[in-house]
Amino acid sequence: MTAVFALATSLLWGLADFGGGMLTRRSPALTVVVVSQTIAAAVLGVVVVASSAWTQADARLWYAVAAGVVGPVAMLCFYRALSLGPMGVVSPLGSVGVAVPVGIGLLLGERPGPVQAFGILLAVAGVVLAGGPQLRGAPVQRQTIMLTLVAAFGFGAVMVLIAESSSTLTGLFLALFVQRLTNVVVGGAALAVSVRRGAAALPAEGVRVLWSALPALAFVGLADVAANGSYALAARSGPVTVAAVLASLYPVITALAARGVLKERLLGVQTTGAAIALFGTLLLASG
């Protein structure tokens, strides 16, 4: 079941990233993050009440709080790096965050077999190539590299933290709710500061656009929640090293979604990377 849950995570994260990318073309990225996470928190709040998940509260919830703090910071660093560019470097480099949960798994004594180890190498290499790395062009700013690495580490840390935030399914609902509430608080505070500085004020037309995009915002927020939940289940049901790598295939999903919906042509390196990643996935699943 590890492979099933982890691949579901990749699918959900990939679609959420694609939807979020589409929405940020019309609205400020921070606004999209805060609104989508607020919707997700509201839905999770209903689930928590209906399932009496609050009875599962314990010290593990601090992991969910930590994930809720780290997540928005990582996302803001990632968006800032994307704005500095080039995207062909930032996007694939951001996927190296998988090293965090994989490293934790190895420190805890997990030892994938030879087939799985080779599958991990292929999957990670394929994900980087699927991002369409820019191999030629102007030098990349050091600030861009640093911001991207901070974001990647943050993404990997969230994977580790959310996997440790509960020991039961209902406890997982509560943990995801707490994580989302923390996301909203941290992101909302950043948004308030931006608005005060005049950097993220939303004009009336922008408000109308945002209102019309509520279904899409709900999808992005809920897909992200579901991805976190399925990853926690994947990490709990099998080796973290396998779960983390399979869950990190989401850039491939995002690239394929852009190809199917926006008719974007994939670069040769992206097509090759997707094929390598999928082959690595088969090795992981079969091992």
TrEMBL record:
Q: Which UniProt keywords apply?
A: Membrane, Transmembrane, Transmembrane helix
Q: Where is the EamA domain?
A: 3-130, 145-284
Its domain of life reads: Bacteria
Question: Which residues belong to the signal peptide in this entry?
Answer: none
Q: Which InterPro entries would you find in this protein's record?
A: EamA_dom, EmrE-like
Entry's transmembrane regions: 28-49, 61-82, 115-132, 144-163, 169-195, 207-227, 239-258, 265-285
Pfam families reported in the protein's UniProt record: EamA
Q: What does the similarity note say?
A: Belongs to the EamA transporter family.
Protein name as annotated: DMT family transporter
Q: Which organism is it from?
A: Streptomyces meridianus
